[in-house]
Amino acid sequence: MTAPQDNPLPKLGIIAGGGALPARLASAAQTAGRAVFVVKLDGHANDADLDAYPNVTARLGAAAKILDAMRTNDCRDVVLAGKVKRPSFSAMRPDWRAAKLLMKVGMKALGDDGLLRLVGEELEREGFRLVGAHEILTDLAVPEGVLGKVSPDDQAMTDAKHGLGVARILGQADVGQGCVVQQGLVLALEAIEGTDEMVRRSAQYRRDGVGGVLVKSSKPQQDKRLDLPAIGLTTVDEAHQAGLRGIALLAGGTMIIDREAVIARADALGMFIIGLRDADGKDGHGV
Amino acid sequence: MTAPQDNPLPKLGIIAGGGALPARLASAAQTAGRAVFVVKLDGHANDADLDAYPNVTARLGAAAKILDAMRTNDCRDVVLAGKVKRPSFSAMRPDWRAAKLLMKVGMKALGDDGLLRLVGEELEREGFRLVGAHEILTDLAVPEGVLGKVSPDDQAMTDAKHGLGVARILGQADVGQGCVVQQGLVLALEAIEGTDEMVRRSAQYRRDGVGGVLVKSSKPQQDKRLDLPAIGLTTVDEAHQAGLRGIALLAGGTMIIDREAVIARADALGMFIIGLRDADGKDGHGV
């Protein structure tokens, strides 16, 4: 084994989907003196942000190539981050390795996160250590309580709690983890369209009177080391434009990307951001 | 009491929301020799279809007016039918009667169907007999099995069953009862936007390969005498345009409006329509 003083932190492999998170992780790891290697998922990863780091591009279905790249580049720790849209079987063009994996599980019954879990399990079987994004960027996780200067009123809290219950129920079925609730009414449910799209849609169905709340949760069975639901600056802006009054997040079960900026933006717009535990007292840690 | 030969069937009161169903009920009742009186819900009911029958228009919030109209017109049997969009409290402008009712329940926590249940209960408390639309138009209810000439293949059946599970879970939370599933992936979930809107949206997220399935269920706690989820000709057309291969309906827990025409259209488009029981063997009868 290498002496710790020569190599204090093992190299970090980043399997990168869409959004800002993968580049944030790469930057945070490097700042902490850690070498990184990035596998950019073709059609998902943001090339412009990631080309500053050693990288290779691979299709989601190219399991052998991804595993080889991680091994050749000596990445023992691997983090999966960023949005990945599950393609159809044919669009995925699985290599022999991916095909074998998919056969084992059966593509037919594979939910949205099932694919991610599969990749995570395979990495561990191959001897890699799966690391959660929140272990690299420790301010990603959402704590309990009001995060900014604005607090929800009674109606907003009722809506937030109702939405959290609905979102958790959705999660049980391995579908979306978000919804918009206004005055007790669920205006929109998130499937695979993504949070921003759902928020925009909700504006068409809003009622008169006080605005609604965006609620994000995670699935009860969600592996926290895989991609947790995340919000960022865009989410706050979209929510504001849709007439929402705030955002409620499952404490410990969701992430905020660019926390300081997100809270400052919400404050400026007069919106609240709150971390809530489940009705049964659970947070996203599954304890 | 009036002699049966003079008045074989008591007059039917129809509280009419949107869509084609209220007029179908009025016509079927009249054909059966039954007098009807219609309360057209302002902003919801289809005036053109209903003005052929004795009627009055009332706001959804005008509970006293609705009850008085039913009583004055000697309607002992009352059916609630057609889509009703729950307005905000202020837009509803409740009269004293409706306000009293709403106070009792609390507007805050009132889900989408909560309002309908409330109206149903109040009618019964006032001595009316609540009748289900399927008791007037007996071919509305969906039986088990393939209804047309086209049968779902294995993938479509897997999608249909998955969707039924998801839709029932949604129903537990008193939110929508529909979803679109393609190759195991839930493309869209229905909240209050309505089935047609959800189906149109799903087309944006469809994957390559075989098309998906529209699934409609009812809520486990749904009172069958109140408005059950329904599909009609428009639904079939929208589903076809969105690239879906068929429609799966909870047997006994959903309705088809214009059954013969709907099946003929589906056959012509090469689409299947199937009535399914729940995974646990239950149908919508709650037995």
From TrEMBL, chains A, B:
<feature type="domain" description="LpxI C-terminal">
    <location>
        <begin position="143"/>
        <end position="274"/>
    </location>
</feature>
<keyword id="KW-0378">Hydrolase</keyword>
<dbReference type="InterPro" id="IPR043167">
    <property type="entry name" value="LpxI_C_sf"/>
</dbReference>
<dbReference type="Pfam" id="PF06230">
    <property type="entry name" value="LpxI_C"/>
</dbReference>
<feature type="domain" description="LpxI N-terminal">
    <location>
        <begin position="11"/>
        <end position="140"/>
    </location>
</feature>
<dbReference type="Pfam" id="PF17930">
    <property type="entry name" value="LpxI_N"/>
</dbReference>
<dbReference type="GO" id="GO:0016787">
    <property type="term" value="F:hydrolase activity"/>
</dbReference>
<dbReference type="InterPro" id="IPR053174">
    <property type="entry name" value="LpxI"/>
</dbReference>
<protein>
    <submittedName>
        <fullName>UDP-2,3-diacylglucosamine diphosphatase LpxI</fullName>
        <ecNumber>3.6.1.54</ecNumber>
    </submittedName>
</protein>
<dbReference type="InterPro" id="IPR010415">
    <property type="entry name" value="LpxI_C"/>
</dbReference>
<dbReference type="InterPro" id="IPR041255">
    <property type="entry name" value="LpxI_N"/>
</dbReference>
